[in-house]
Design brief:
Order of helices and strands: HHHHHHHHH
Number of strands: 0
Number of helices: 9
Radius of gyration: 17 Å
């Protein structure tokens, strides 16, 4: 595994950029795909957003200052791309964000790429009822097992606020699953 500082340097220099970017994509594509997929829920949409994420990373790598980890920076881009995608798609369909999210969850059962069972589907429905920030924090903590400090870097918010958001999300999910 290449050191992050070396990788960033190689990404920022024309002579080594292509090979370094290929390494970056191969290293992070699966993890970023699942992060995006948990937000947009649909496989094809997740693929599109993942591609857009890597395009943004490629175009903006020279602006990366190293104030955070490269991974956190890419996660932030993926998160923002995912949320922008959902807003754009819901507006295009003339639905508010909640109605569009409900439609996405309902379509999960018919999605050939959804590998979950009935319990997983119920969990996804419960997660869909959460406010945006709680949903993001829950997914990153529960599914991706990120530390609060990492989530804090990605979402640019305090660890204390994240802990509160996660706690509230878990409570709401438990209530929803008991219905």
């Amino acid at each position: 595994m290449i050191a992050e500082e070396t990788l960033v340097n190689e990404l920022q220099h024309k002579a080594t950029q292509e090979k370094a970017f290929e390494l970056l994509v191969n290293t992070h594509k699966e993890r970023l795909y699942w992060h995006i997929r948990r937000i947009v829920l649909n496989h094809d949409d997740a693929d599109d957003v993942l591609q857009n994420t890597f395009i943004k990373v490629y175009r903006n790598i020279n602006g990366f200052k190293g104030d955070s980890k490269l991974f956190s920076w890419m996660y932030r881009i993926a998160t923002n791309e995912s949320l922008s995608f959902l807003k754009h798609k819901s507006r295009k369909l003339g639905l508010n964000d909640g109605a569009y999210q409900d439609r996405l969850v309902e379509s999960l059962a018919a999605d050939v790429y959804f590998e979950g069972d009935a319990i997983q589907l119920q969990l996804q429905k419960a997660i869909a009822t959460l406010p945006e920030k709680q949903k993001l924090v829950f997914n990153m903590k529960y599914f991706e097992e990120l530390k609060y400090e990492e989530i804090s870097e990605i979402l640019d918010t305090s660890v204390g606020g994240l802990k509160a958001s996660y706690h509230l999300a878990v409570k709401k999910i438990k209530v929803h699953l008991k219905k």
